Amino acid sequence: MASKLTKGYIDRIKAGAKDEFHWDTDVKGFGLRVTPTGKMTFIVQGRVEGSGKEARITVGPFGVFTAEQARDVAREHLRNMRMGLDPRDMKKQDDALKVTLQAVCDAYVSRPGKLKATSKHAIERHVRTTFLAWASKPIVSITEDMCKARYRELLTKGLRGKKGAPGQANQAFAVLGALINYAGRQHKRADGSPLIAHNPVASLKDDKVKLKPRTTRVLDAKVGAVWLALGQWRTIAHNRDTASSIDLVRFLLLTGLRISEASSLKWDQVNLEDGYFHLPNPKNAHPVFMPLAAQATELLEARPRVDDNPYVFPSWGKAGHIKDPRDLMKKLSGVAGNPITPHDLRRTYTNIALRSCRIEKFRTDLLTNHITRDVTAEHYFDTTNLQWLQPEAQQIADFLDQQAAIAASDNVKRLTPRTEAA
């Protein structure tokens, strides 16, 4: 049916048994769709110049739009089609231009199997705190000047008026850069080009504070004293969480694991009979079976198993396992003579392997589950089952015991003159 679409004409339309279309005689391609329920919606239909694709677009319902208002919108859509622009792509572009930083963050962290819980938490935390003022803004509205100003503000004031740490500022903008890149890949402009052609975070390249790699570890001369102290403290530890913390730290020195991997270790990942444990989802997403030295096996065999708690190092805390043995690390730092963190124990393990035990770097990388860039290892060599590295793991554990014995002997020598003088 064709007629000039006016209010009077539309008011006289009766709904039929199926969808009916009433086309406007003034503007070719402009029409009204009427459903059997009586719903009336203005539409526009035409072919996109150059592509030959036919496009039908909803303008809006009658009542919200008058016939004249809908006709004006239809003319604009038809004009764009004659210029080779598909109105559907333009609508997607308009929608994409409104996507907020928070919406991009939500989509980014919700991808199944892509991120660990800790990574999700860090990303959401930065959007919720560092970039709170931008969270509800369209992500395309974030500019280079905004990034530079916020970065400098973080360095001088931090989040709560305190001087910020460069490491935190760098991490925050690494997160923002990743979110903007993701938005650029997921959303396109009407012509098919990326929604965000240039990531504004890239402008910080010359502004970012370059951080020196951390090298903190237990120094060679203190390794024995540290290992000795841990053993002595364990013999007098009667509180469950205290014992778990000490055993966790000892396990870190015996394996070189990341704290998150060791603290969340479950009994079903451990095979004491064959002397290995399994990391199904480590930080580098490379599942691996790792060897246990005799000392590590002995440590685990002595660990009590708690009913209804699957963790090797259980805790009364909410997580169910020890997460951060902070108090113990402060105490251990006093023995080491410098501040020590759980990750510093990983560096200590690596230095013992490379420097003291002369274990080649390739094997040391495997023992610490570092991603190797060796082509043969990546494509032709089994780097998942590493039980064959048990001799190297044993060599490191034996070195710790040797150094502890030396430290114990030195302690006796230092005490002897005092005893005689007394």
TrEMBL record:
InterPro entries according to UniProt: DNA_brk_join_enz, Integrase-like_cat_sf, Integrase_catalytic, Integrase_DNA-bd_sf, Integrase_DNA_bind_dom, Integrase_recombinase_N, Phage_Integrase
Taxonomy of the source species: Bacteria, Pseudomonadati, Pseudomonadota, Alphaproteobacteria, Sphingomonadales
Record keywords, A-Z: DNA integration, DNA recombination, DNA-binding
Protein name, entry field: Integrase family protein
GO BP annotations, alphabetical order: DNA integration; DNA recombination
Native species: Sphingobium psychrophilum
Superkingdom in the source lineage: Bacteria
Pfam family, one: Arm-DNA-bind_3
Family indicated by similarity: Belongs to the 'phage' integrase family.
Domain Tyr recombinase, first and last residues per copy: 214-393
GO MF annotations, alphabetized: DNA binding
